[in-house]
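Predict the 3D structure for this chain.
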Amino acid sequence: MTTKKILILKNARGGDLFTSLRLISSLNIKNNKIRLYLSELNNCFAFLFKNIEIIKIKYDLKISNRINIFLDIIKNKYDEIYILSPKTFYFFLPFIFRKIKFFAIVYNGKKRNRPNNFLRKFLFSYKVISRIKKNNNNYEELQTKLLDDNIELDNNFTNLSIPLISSELKSILPKSFLFFQFRYLFFEDLKWNFDDLDKLFSALLAKYENILFSSDNENNSKSIKYINYFKKKYSSIDTNNYKINLINNSKKIFFLENLSAKNLFLILKESQINLGKHGIISHISHFHSAKCHNLFNFEINNIDDFYHQKFSYSEWYGHMSYKFSFLNNDINKTIRKILKFI
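Done. Predicted structure below.
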């Protein structure tokens, strides 16, 4: 089989990366030489890739990033380039490097298409995500449709490096638990307070024996405020050093402080159900075929808002068969909604 030099541009968010794993694994056969660009937001999942060169760049491309990518393409003379992040800069590359086969996901929107029809002519192959009607295939499915017919789709991810949970990590986890992801911006938008969160946890414990939860690791005053509260209120598990800190009044709820991307990946596979804001938790759960319930807090003020969210859902979660709840600032109503589906 002929060796191909392949460049994959995927400097996206963490959850977005998981939509591309099936495509990347299918391309990662031993004859191919692959270079993969990741961002500061998804580079933490680089442990998933073997025999692939990883380059870290900014999520929002800097001038230096653009120059380095341009020089990289000139120097390495790739056979194929996959544009899997919708950066405007990327869509000018096929116009410049016309001897290279470019594959891309493009977007049709209400106000404009990205890229425009002129630039699409220089793509070797592309699939369209619609922002104006329901998508028949989700983002992950459309990416795999970019593959040539002679490439076997790797549905089992055999060409990735999927870690297994260590005995040390497994030994400090409860035998059964619900995993919950706390995102402070999400809950501040809902105008929830600490008492509301405690009420939610109490309700969840009526159905699940233990709760493990993580919080944002952002180093800002708001995030730190919540983290300090969680450390005082609840028992904690240090998944990096394999230690448990028990607090007398909290033997069923455990805060996972400084949870790494790898340990998050492993723990989501072990849980009975994963509960959290739609995004990275949803995509990792889908990868593991793990049970998951998505939480949304979109405001639906008119019919246009309704259809916008419907189209967006079909783009990311269509055919994933996940149930979800739309939340508001009524904590009691929220609890009833969640308990109904989990």
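The chain has two domains: 5-144, 167-341.
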